[in-house]
Write a structure and sequence with these properties.
Blueprint (H helix, E strand, L loop, with lengths): L5 E5 L4 H13 L3 E5 L8 H4 L21 E5 L3 H13 L7 E4 L9 H15 L2
Parallel strand pairs: 1-2, 3-4
Antiparallel strand pairs: 1-3
């Protein structure tokens, strides 16, 4: 089983910010994938290239989000702490919507995860 840490990156439109984040992840030997809008309906397990997952046969006809989002896979708690500290130490604004891949969310599309994270974020910041 592939347990190399990996991350999906969504909507990182600032090229300097993206470059800093990708450089950090590369140094940490974390596999990165930038997810584009046409891929938002595929299961997260497929985007992470997990065995047994297929692409979605549906076309994304406008379902979209524009805020940044991170999905992390196989990060240890030390790796997670280090990654979050990297943002703080380099004065890079943190990413509001972030999640770890779970046995449940690996079956979700990026849109489903984004909707769920957005709801949680709004509840936590009321």
């Amino acid at each position: 089983m592939n347990t190399q840490p990996a991350v999906l990156l969504y909507n990182f439109n600032d090229p300097d910010r993206l470059r800093l984040i990708r450089r950090y992840l590369n140094r940490q030997k974390v596999k990165t994938r930038i997810v584009s809008t046409p891929e938002f309906l595929h299961p997260l397990g497929y985007l992470f290239e997990l065995p047994g997952f297929q692409s979605s046969p549906q076309f994304n006809l406008g379902a979209n989000f524009t805020d940044e989002m991170l999905v992390l896979k196989d990060f240890s708690s030390e790796q997670m702490d280090s990654f979050l500290a990297f943002f703080h130490e380099n004065q890079i604004p943190s990413v509001a919507l972030k999640a770890m891949l779970t046995p449940v969310t690996q079956h979700w599309s990026s849109l489903q995860l984004h909707d769920e994270l957005s709801k949680e974020h709004k509840l936590m910041h009321k």
